[in-house]
Amino acid sequence: MSDALPLKGLRVVDVSRVYAMPYAAAHLADMGAEVIRVEACHIPDTRLQLFALPDNQPGELWWERSGTFHTLNRGKRSLTLDLTKGDALEPLKQLIAKSDVVIENYTPRVSRRFGLDYPSLKKLKEDIILLSNTGYGHSGPWSEYGAVAATLESVHGTGAFMAYDGVPAKIGNSYTDFIAAWTAVFALMAALIHRRRTGRGLWIDLAMYQVGASFVGEGILDHAFNGRRQRPLGNRHLSWSPHGCYPCRGDDEWVTIAVRDDQEWQTLCGAIGKLELAKSPKYADPASRYERQDEVDRWISEWTRTRDKHEIMNTLQSVGVPCGVVMKARDMFKDTHYKARGFFEGVHHSPDSGIGEKPYISRGWRSSGMESRIQGPGPSLGEANEYVLRDILGLSAGDVARLEREGVIGRSPVGASSPRPLPLEQQKLLGWIQDYDVDYKERLG
Amino acid sequence: MLGQVLDGIKILELGGGKASSFCARLLADYGADVIKLEAPGSGDVLRRHGPFVGNTPHAEKSIPFLYLNTNKRSITLDIVSPTGCLILKRLAQWANVVVEGHSPSHLKGFGMGYEALSSENPSLVMTSITPFGQMGPYRDYKASDIVTTAMSGLMYLSGDADKEPIRNALDQSLYVAGTQAAGATLAAVYQGMATSKGQHIDVSITECMALHLVQAVSSYAYMGAVRGRRSPMNSGLDEVMPCADGYVLPSAQGSQPWEVAVELLGVEEMKAPKFSTAEGRIAHGPELYDLLIKGLWKWNRKDLFHASAERRLLFGMVQDAGDLFECPQLRSRGFYTKGTNLEADGVEFPGEIVRLSEGSYRMQRPAPLLGQHNEEVYCGMLGYGKEEMSLLRRWGVI
């Protein structure tokens, strides 16, 4: 069934770090590509993240146990290479010469220093596809500026369009990393089509800033035409009303409701037992409802506050009013819709990791003609050293042993020690997590 | 001259909405030939979405429509009518890809679902983009961005812990889904180049957004922890803070020592040893907050942004649409290009989402007027005569 995995036979060298590009490369692995993650023993990257350790225990093999790492690097192989040591760049270059795609996210200066710029890689392999991901792009006055998603989201404009009472809000959750990842997959697929048709490779210069600006392009165009600089509406909507997020029964439980026309308004009034509002000319059209939305929101909240969020959604949806539960991760796992679509894919981890089988977020689409799925967990550090250096590159056992002696390759972290996560109860008190379920395994089923 | 990377890929776009429009626009931006089918009279639903050029509602002046439909052609066709169905089948034979945003049962309802179109053209790739996907108990639920964002789990994590969850700016879930759909569509096209087989891709906007929950989902699956919205540290770091002319985000992230940030802001009291560690900055958060206010008050956001970047600090600033429009970085990269239709004449559009070393983005044509390319497509491509066209027009088919 190899023709049901479109990227079967393709080799991707992933020298990127953190979130955005590792995640993009993981999606290529889901589609059948052989993705070789190149990492250094002294840079633990997301292997060190504490957000998700099995039962909050780092264990002896802590660098193999981060759920964040496994999500971002599922289905890959791992080659360790400390690029700052000895002639470590030599095996990397040889590997690139036998690969199809290279993904990196160094700043332009560092990528040139490592010889990972497109002209250099083209000399190694004429039709190579190189994706370079940076904060601001490889050209322009800001090209050497460093960036992280946490601040980029405001620089590229999304912050100005979300607000609590007019003060810009933070999206959080590394939003910019993700939109860069989806753009990377799109650009890489376009490049692969180009290569299949013309035999030519190309260079993708992906600037996260530019992706972010594209995602608020309609706001920029509103400025270009109308001179408007921003319109932070919070949970409200320019032309629909009511439109918002309403509290439900329980602790920090919410639903969202979007009334898009007068018909939906009438229906909503009936559902919440406020037929007199439906008849009142004061609320007859979206503009007058928008004017009085504080008041309308109070009526809706009064009704939602005492009810279960799922019950509210099902009640309103059954009469055709757009309404959705504000899901927490715990809700998603037991949700019948996510289940029916097989959104979470189970992955078996190696016995020595002590992780067992875990469910993972998969992808946003299913296809009748592709068997994309998570091919396996993230790789253990350096597990593919022998495979890459001996089988692909043909190095001798002596050469590999020398690289190991010189500390270029290895199988365990250097200079980092086991993290010590705080107990969950303490994390809850500090506000790092909202809650925890001691019986989560039973709940997951 | 070299063409664009997606030159020659033929795409039909059916049904309205931002997600499918953005998906097809990305493909058109890099060379695909996109024909957008719109309902005669009313056109794409986006044409009724504001804001409008000059702030007056008009089918040719919707800013979201103008933004999301550059590089496409538009024809009108009543695909529900029997004659419309016949024409749609002919267009499906022409196309490599159909991108559609109708509700799951709509096309099937009049016999124009994937099975029917693929029997006309077995190598056809069809990408359907809906809030919850083609199957599953919520498939027919009604939704807009605030509903899909809520259901994806991302909204619960967005905003501050002491306030309500907040949705992202400007229908972000629809842009996220459009981009992922474009990637999946091209994967299917790439696969089809080897197998000559078509396929039906079922995109769920909600699931596309749920993919952002890397930490929250693994936290629960690994240790039963429920992540929520961020609790402000009240130290001012990595929070939106006021400065002389707007808002900035002072950050202690990155590899630079704390002293570099202290030096930049020039507030003597921040040198106190109690602030020198991350733990200390959290423990003395409110005090640090006041000192930051004192330091930031002297700065304009852009000056601070550049000064911090030059010192390899990772400070952010809040930019609005005007800042982005004037931005020297975006301008030097050629992000803005001129549109050329009547309404857009002279106005510069944000364009290239990603730069390719060859065959990259090009602004070939502005967003089409409703049915602007009827004659070109019906007469030029499908071979209808002028009389047949006026007949179709009289029947309300086009």
Task: Provide an overview of this structure.
The complex is a heterodimer of chains A (445) and B (398). Chain A has 445 residues and is of the alpha/beta class. In chain A, 39% of the residues lie in helices and 14% in strands. In chain A, the strands form four sheets. Chain A has a six-stranded parallel β-sheet with strand order 3-2-1-4-5-8, sandwiched between helices. In chain A, helix 1 crosses helix 8 and helix 8 crosses helix 9. Chain A is globular, with a radius of gyration of 25 Å. The two termini of chain A are 31 Å apart. In chain A, 53% of the residues are buried. With 398 residues, chain B is α/β, with parallel strands linked by helices. Chain B is 38% helix and 13% strand. Chain B contains 17 helices and 13 strands. In chain B, helix 1 links the parallel strand 1 and strand 2. In chain B, helix 3 crosses helix 5. Classes of the chains: A alpha/beta (445), B alpha/beta (398).
Q: Reading side by side through the largest sheet of chain A, how are the strands ordered?
A: 3-2-1-4-5-8
Q: How would you sum up the global shape of chain B?
A: elongated
The percent range for helix content of chain A is: 25-40%
Q: Please give the number of β-strands of chain B.
A: 13
Round the Cα radius of gyration of chain A to an integer and report it. 25 Å
Strand content of chain A: 5-15%
String of helices and strands of chain B: EHEHEHEHHEHHEHHEEEHHHHEHHEEEHH
Beta-sheet strand percentage of chain B?
A: 5-15%
Low-confidence stretches of chain B: none
> How confident is the prediction overall: mean pLDDT of chain B?
92
What strand order characterises the main sheet of chain B?
3-2-1-4-5-6
Overall average residue pLDDT of chain A: 94
What general outline of chain A do the C-alpha atoms trace?
Answer: globular
For the sheet with most strands of chain B, the description reads:
6 strands, parallel
What is the rounded Rg of chain B? 25 Å
Structural class of chain A: alpha/beta
Amino- and carboxy-terminal Cα gap of chain A: 31 Å
DSSP helix fraction of chain B: 25-40%
